[in-house]
Amino acid sequence: MNYRNGSNIYKQNQILNATPKKLVVLLYEGAIKNLKLAELSAEEKKIEATGTALIKAQNIISELMNTLDFENGGEVAQNLSQLYDYLLTELIKANSSKQSEDIKRSRVMLEELRDAWIEI
After folding, report:
1. What CATH code would you report for 20-119?
2. pTM to 2 decimals?
């Protein structure tokens, strides 16, 4: 077994055995990782790589939106939905501008959300 296969198996096991809370944290971490990649790519003027990483982050945020339980989540779910919608809009703008500062603002917000989920 090579390192890449072992890493993929570890990630799969981590996801399959995760609690719902942990899955949300993993999604945040995935979006944050892609936003960091997008920031670095933007600074290096790698336009295609920046766009790819931003789209991956957008897809993860869309998945977070899809997991919201409005029936049981009440006001918290509504607030998160609005926040995710805002983040998606900001990432679309960032994908247009390709400016690392635009990307950083969204990353910082997601890091704060992730940290809040970890503390729950």
Report:
1. 1.20.120.340
2. 0.84
